[in-house]
UniProtKB/TrEMBL annotation:
This is Sodium/solute symporter. PANTHER family: SODIUM-COUPLED MONOCARBOXYLATE TRANSPORTER, SODIUM-DEPENDENT MULTIVITAMIN TRANSPORTER-LIKE PROTEIN. Gene3D superfamilies: Sodium/glucose cotransporter. GO terms for biological process: sodium ion transport. It is found in: Cell membrane. Keywords: Cell membrane, Ion transport, Membrane, Sodium, Sodium transport, Transmembrane, Transmembrane helix, Transport. Belongs to the sodium:solute symporter (SSF) (TC 2.A.21) family. InterPro entries: Na/Glc_symporter_sf, Na/solute_symporter, Sodium:Solute_Symporter_SSF. It comes from the Eukaryota. Its main location: membrane. It comes from Anopheles quadriannulatus. GO terms for molecular function: symporter activity. The chain crosses the membrane at residues 28-47, 68-86, 98-122, 143-166, 178-200, 207-235, 255-273, 294-316, 354-375, 396-416, 422-443, 455-475, 527-548. It is a multi-pass membrane protein.
Length: 597
């Protein structure tokens, strides 16, 4: 970066409060109203609804009587976190729109969910999807999987909470350390007392707020730039329209392959084999309705991701000749979308409040889901097998666990703020665990020959390898050794341009000319590949260990295999002493196999 630019940025790291674009009273009213409505939903289902939250079947699964639409909306809201709302536009502004390829990943994930994973889990009807792992492999592997999920939730949820907190701080001037505990306490309240019904209906309400905020901001921003054509014209002139970067280099920050291939494996894991999704599908009474919910979720998930990509173009169009970071009005790129909304909507009362409501809605839905699902998973996997509890007592235990998890996540927020970009941080955290989890389920559902030892040690090797890579990369980033050069930013349109007469260029790049070659190659691997790498490690190590230890010694029930591979084994007999399947007879296909075929 040009020394003059660097100096300017250092002097402007903290813009005075009076220079910021701040909330109006009506914005505070809209924001507080949404929080109040969310809390009231928790009060209703916790104290006044006919369905009392005094047993685990109702508290965790809504007595399996939920409707398709609210469940689909809840799923979409859960996976459209504040990281999507804030991190994706900032990423597009800084590095271009290659992330659009996530739509390909979304389609593949939806197909996998409908035809590979959902039939197995809906047939088993278990609260914890990790009970499948015990039935297919052993209790040790199930315990490991549950522990990984706990690890993921406790690391990822603070990132999700921190994202809207910095947005709120940008638009109000209120310190992150003040607003975060308030928001978390409201979420903990309605999740604890309202159960899964409150979580699903608050998610539906909050997703509606998200969509309203997105549509209004997109429409207003597009009109201010002179229409969609002009938005793309400005983006193309600024080099942001990167549709197909087919460079296979795994050390890039982003490319077509990194997004389409890397995110596919991560999303298949996070959507197809996580308790937070499986639990929601099981609240729907029949398979046909559950599939409809998946398709609605898949389409909604893809659309909101693409809307966020487009918002990145709107930000660039607005600031194509004056980067707010250079000007000093914004401290971090993660804050730029919040600043943009207040900038374009400064004369429209209530719109900034609606936007922040949308951001916080995304975070609250993700946090409430994590707390509800994690408490259910820990109860089913660690407490129920060891203690004989009555339904009412069990429900109370789960509620206490929800509160405890919420408090832990709140405390960890103050650790997250010391780390790097929320976009890359969130994907890195997810990649460490999602690849390992996907590998375990792939081994179990696609081959009856893999045994528990193979799955367990494959997961251990994968987890250790990915943890070393992710932690090492984060340390390199914090040390300033691992950086990615951004696309160019202009600043000749800024109000203070050429005040000193020393500017020799109208462009600068973040981390311009930085060379990552001195960073060990393993830490330079693109963070979007973490999940794929973890899956491959589990599968390879799992196969090797299984065959080295004699393979699966007991026959695997066909309902534990995905419908895609059941026809290959339905006419085979099993030889326990050899661990082999041999063609000896035929048998009738189950109803679920007929559906799959």
């Amino acid at each position: 970066m040009d020394p003059t630019v660097s100096s300017t940025m250092e002097e402007a790291t903290e813009a005075p409060l009076e220079q910021r674009l701040l909330f109006s009273p009506i914005d505070y009213v809209i924001f507080c109203s949404m929080l109040g409505m969310s809390a009231l939903i928790g009060v209703y289902y916790g104290f006044f609804a006919k369905q009392k939250q005094n047993n685990t079947a109702e508290y965790l699964l809504g007595s399996k009587q939920m409707k398709v639409f609210p469940v689909a909306m809840s799923l979409t809201a859960t996976h459209i976190s504040a990281i999507t709302m804030l991190g994706v536009p900032a990423e597009m502004y800084k590095y271009g729109i290659q992330y659009w390829a996530c739509s390909i990943s979304g389609l593949i994930v939806t197909i996998f969910m409908v035809y590979v994973f959902l039939p197995v889990f809906h047939e088993l009807q278990t609260v914890s999807c990790y009970s499948y792992i015990e039935q297919r492999f052993d209790k040790r592997t199930r315990t490991l999987a549950s522990g990984l999920f706990m690890f993921y939730c406790l690391l990822n949820t603070p990132v999700i909470i921190y994202a809207p907190a910095i947005a709120f701080s940008q638009v109000t001037g209120i310190n992150v350390h003040i607003i975060t505990p308030i928001i978390c306490c409201i979420c903990i309240f309605y999740t604890t007392f309202g159960g899964i019904r409150a979580v699903i209906w608050t998610d539906t309400l909050q997703f509606g707020a998200m969509l309203c905020a997105l549509f209004v901001v997109m429409t207003l921003g597009t009109l201010q730039l002179g229409g969609v054509v002009n938005v793309f014209r400005l983006a193309e002139a600024g080099g942001r329209l990167i549709w197909f970067n087919m460079d296979p280099d795994p050390y890039l920050r982003t490319s077509f392959w990194l997004v389409s291939v890397g995110l596919t494996s991560m999303w298949i894991s996070n959507i197809g084999v996580t308790p937070e999704c499986i639990q929601r599908f099981l609240t729907i009474p029949d398979m046909s309705s559950a599939k409809k919910a998946v398709w609605i979720f898949g389409v909604g998930h893809i659309l909101v991701k693409l809307f966020s990509v487009y918002n990145g173009l709107l930000i660039f169009g607005k600031y194509h000749d004056c980067d707010p970071i250079h000007e000093g009005t914004v401290q971090k790129y993660d804050q730029i979308f919040a600043y943009y909304v207040l900038d374009v909507a400064r004369h429209i009362p209530g719109l900034p409040g609606l936007f922040v409501v949308g951001i916080f809605s995304a975070a609250l839905s993700s946090m409430s889901t994590s707390m509800n699902t994690l408490s259910g998973t820990l109860f089913e996997d660690f407490i129920r097998p060891r203690f004989a509890l009555k339904d009412k007592t069990a429900s109370t235990v789960v509620k206490v666990m929800v509160m405890t998890i919420g408090v832990i996540c709140l405390l960890l927020v103050f650790v997250v703020e010391q780390l790097g970009s929320i976009f890359s941080l969130a994907i890195s955290v997810s990649g460490v665990t999602s690849g390992t989890m996907l590998g375990i389920f792939f081994l179990g559902m696609f081959s009856p020959h893999i045994n528990g030892k193979g799955a367990f040690w494959g997961a251990i090797v994968s987890l250790i390898s990915l943890s070393v890579i992710a932690v090492g990369a984060q340390l390199e980033i914090l040390g300033g050794h691992l950086k990615y050069e951004s696309l160019p930013f202009r600043y000749d349109g800024c109000s203070d341009f050429n005040v000193t007469g020393t500017e020799t260029s109208t462009f600068y790049r973040d981390a311009a000319g930085h060379d990552n070659s001195e960073v060990p190659w393993v830490f330079r691997i693109g963070f979007m590949y973490y999940s794929l790498l973890g899956t491959i490690i589990v599968i390879v190590v799992g196969i090797v260990v299984s065959y080295a230890t004699g393979g699966q010694k007991e026959r695997v029930p066909l309902n534990l295999l995905t419908p895609w591979v059941r026809p290959l084994y339905r006419s085979l007999d099993y030889t326990p002493e050899k661990g082999e399947y041999k063609l000896t007879r035929s048998c009738e296909m189950t109803e679920i196999e007929k559906i799959a075929k």
